[in-house]
Write a structure and sequence with these properties.
single chain; 151 residues; five-stranded mixed beta sheet; 4 helices; 5 strands; globular
Length: 151
């Protein structure tokens, strides 16, 4: 198992916690360049304080606050689903070095789908992108969640 897969498993664990809370199952983890996990989080936008409580934003906020860092320069963000436009912008603002995501999000993604935020000439920081890590597991968790909601 690769290091990226190991950290994605942590993000998947958070996504499963979201399911248990009836939240959209997206999980994230922020890891520094030494392999230390700085924060993990999951979506809480449905039942939490506000709709912007996406896993990525939550994890980056926790990591920055707990480590008294304004930016997360040498960090990797692991997330089970391709980030949306809001999260892609937040990732850029936080200066995340790498984004590793599982499942693509053809409808709401903004990294390799949709607006492709990092290809915009107005984007100030473009992280390295690694896609498809444990994509099947990440996608199956989302599909099962939404299938249950429809049924």
């Amino acid at each position: 198992m690769t290091e990226d897969e190991q950290f994605m498993l942590m993000a998947l664990k958070e996504a499963r916690r979201a399911v248990a809370e009836d939240e959209v199952p997206v999980g994230a983890a922020v890891v520094d360049d030494k392999g230390n996990v700085l924060a993990t989080a999951h979506n809480t936008g449905e039942h939490g304080i506000h709709a912007m409580a996406h896993a990525e934003v939550q994890a980056m906020s926790i990591a920055a606050i707990q480590n008294e860092q304004k930016r997360l320069w040498d960090c990797t963000l692991y997330v089970t689903l391709e980030p949306c436009a809001m999260c892609a912008a937040a990732i850029s603002l936080m200066r995340i070095k790498r984004v590793v995501f599982g499942a693509e999000n053809p409808k709401g993604g903004a990294v390799v789908n949709g607006v492709k935020y990092y290809e915009s000439p107005t984007c100030n920081h473009k992280p390295q992108i690694v896609k498809g890590i444990l994509a099947e597991e990440c996608g199956e968790l989302l599909s099962a969640f939404f299938k249950e909601k429809r049924d």
